[in-house]
């Protein structure tokens, strides 16, 4: 076997996945077709849950200085924004950060962890058998090498060769509409205000560069494959805003479409899919990259557990069961947003569509509605269904990042305890002296036991006595039992179900 896991694609999804695998000691190689890192940035945002997972891996200090926190985000470009600051998180903001920076920081981390990112290496196809897969890799000089891997993960974007080679269907709808983006150095702030007022999305980036994004009713049926020219861009802005906003010398022009597809399965034998390889949609409310990062967080530790030989039955299959419904929900909400935008561009629907948007904006002013949608777009609301009936209501939800004091150590946050990407088992009552020895004897390399002597209050944790947190920060198991013997039995059962047979 040349490698345990071959990750195809060094976009944000592939890079974070490689970091997760390397943290667990899995031999990983990343094959990337591009010879150089991507300079232009499609995505510009890390939404709250992405910031949380970066925090969980101790990387926040690298990301925060390069980005700009913004307290909310638009939904369908409605005037009322989603308020992330009202959500229960230390990171109730979106970090405005160009995708190129996110990729550079993840690549840096992957290299530190010993991952080789092999650039100029295009995967041309693969064949799998019972205990691995042969991956055909075409190098810079055109030569083809066959790499044998125990598992292959396609993080190779919407046109994924891995997905196609594994025969995984990608049902959905073709592109029916396209938008355009352009990055320019613009000096006239008044022009930007006019553009905003006319429905053009205007996002100041770094070094004085401004991103314009628009849907021009006269150009929305132009296929995404047709290049955008400066003349076209100026003509569209003039049509939409009454002026071309002084744009010249574009840094980047691009046309993107609303093809919406979801892989029929995220796993076929030894092949798995993550990120755009598994789901594509219109970039409404900036969710694609963020969803890919969450896929990687969900998959990394599970695949590592299988490779390292201790995964309990069904753990790897839970990746599809947990993440595919999230992919489905994201594709659906982007379709809703696209429709809300598109209808206003169709003459016979313009009046009712404008009224519909006004109604939606009004609804978003209601705190509960706003919170519900903000939780969905930020991914803070993502909860995985419990595997067993009668589980504690916390199971599947993200663990709150409370501060706590552990016996014999300094105050710490739960997310800091997750940096090693192992399970964290918390005795919240501090009265289970057997926890440490039980965990260390049976699951020492997989679980960090913590006896909590003091902690922040959190309403979700009232009455909880013990809790097992997964490496991705979601709750695996929790109990409110106070009886010591009953707790011991439940604990052993939970540890075996999640962290495998004791070693
Ligand atoms: C206009 C626009 C704006 C967007 N804005 C946002 C936003 O604000 N927020 C957000 O979350 N998302 C946004 N997105 C979506 C986001 O850019 C993507 O969802 C994200 O890049 C997906 O990451 P990925 O790693 O899964 O795939 P990709 O970024 O597509 O990376 C795939 C990688 O695989 C490589 N590759 C492909 N085929 C092969 C092969 N055969 N062999 C080897 N390597 C291969 C590619 O070169 C590439 O580097 C936007 C998208 C667009 C179009």
UniProtKB/TrEMBL annotation:
Keywords: FAD, Flavoprotein, Monooxygenase, Oxidoreductase
Pfam family, one: FAD_binding_3
Domain FAD-binding: 3-334
Cofactor(s) in the UniProt record: FAD
GO MF entry, a single one: monooxygenase activity
Keyword Oxidoreductase appears in the UniProt entry: yes
NCBIfam families linked to this entry: PRK08244.1
Protein name: Monooxygenase
């Amino acid at each position: 076997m040349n490698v345990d896991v071959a990750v195809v694609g060094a976009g944000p999804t592939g890079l974070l996945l490689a970091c997760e695998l390397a943290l667990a000691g899995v031999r990983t190689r990343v094959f990337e077709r591009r010879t150089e890192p991507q300079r232009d940035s499609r995505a510009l945002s890390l939404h709250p849950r992405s910031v949380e997972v970066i925090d969980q891996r101790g990387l926040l200090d690298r990301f925060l200085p390069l980005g700009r926190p913004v307290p909310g985000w638009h939904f369908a470009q409605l005037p009322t924004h989603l308020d992330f600051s009202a959500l229960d998180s230390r990171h109730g903001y979106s970090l405005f950060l160009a995708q190129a920076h996110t990729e550079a920081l993840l690549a840096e981390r992957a290299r530190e962890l010993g991952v080789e990112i092999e650039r100029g290496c295009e995967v041309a196809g693969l064949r799998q058998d019972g205990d691995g897969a042969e991956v055909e890799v075409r190098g810079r000089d055109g030569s083809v090498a066959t790499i044998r891997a125990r598992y292959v993960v396609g993080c190779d974007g919407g046109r994924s060769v891995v997905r196609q080679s594994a025969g995984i269907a990608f049902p959905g709808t073709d592109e029916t509409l396209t938008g355009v983006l352009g990055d320019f150095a613009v000096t006239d702030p008044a022009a930007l205000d006019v553009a905003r007022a006319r429905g053009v999305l205007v996002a100041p980036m770094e070094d004085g560069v401004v991103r314009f994004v628009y849907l021009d009713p006269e150009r929305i049926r132009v296929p995404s494959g047709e290049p955008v020219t400066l003349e076209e861009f100026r003509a569209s802005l003039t049509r939409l805003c009454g002026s071309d906003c002084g744009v010249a010398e574009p840094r980047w022009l691009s046309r993107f479409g609303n093809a919406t597809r979801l892989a029929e399965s995220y796993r076929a034998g030894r092949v798995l899919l993550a990120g755009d390889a598994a789901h594509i949609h219109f970039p409404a409310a900036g969710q694609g990259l963020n969803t890919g990062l969450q896929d990687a967080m969900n998959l990394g530790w599970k695949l590592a557990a299988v490779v390292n030989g201790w995964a309990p039955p069904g753990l790897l299959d839970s990746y599809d069961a947990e993440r595919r419904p999230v992919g489905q929900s994201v594709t659906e909400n982007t379709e809703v947003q696209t429709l809300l935008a598109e209808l206003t561009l169709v003459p016979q629907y313009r009046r009712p569509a404008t009224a519909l948007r006004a109604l939606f904006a009004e609804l978003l002013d209601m705190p509960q509605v706003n919170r519900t949608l903000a939780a969905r777009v930020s991914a803070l609301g993502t909860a995985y269904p419990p595997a067993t009936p009668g589980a504690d209501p916390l199971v599947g939800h993200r663990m709150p990042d409370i501060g706590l004091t552990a016996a014999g150590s300094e105050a710490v946050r739960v997310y800091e305890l997750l940096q090693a990407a192992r399970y964290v088992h918390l005795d919240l009552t501090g009265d289970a002296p057997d926890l440490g020895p039980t965990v260390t004897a049976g699951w020492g390399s997989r679980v960090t036991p913590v006896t909590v002597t003091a902690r922040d209050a959190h309403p979700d944790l009232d009455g909880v006595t013990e809790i097992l947190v997964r490496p991705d920060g979601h709750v695996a198991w929790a109990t409110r039992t106070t009886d010591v013997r009953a707790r011991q039995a439940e604990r052993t059962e939970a540890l075996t179900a999640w962290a495998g047979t004791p070693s």
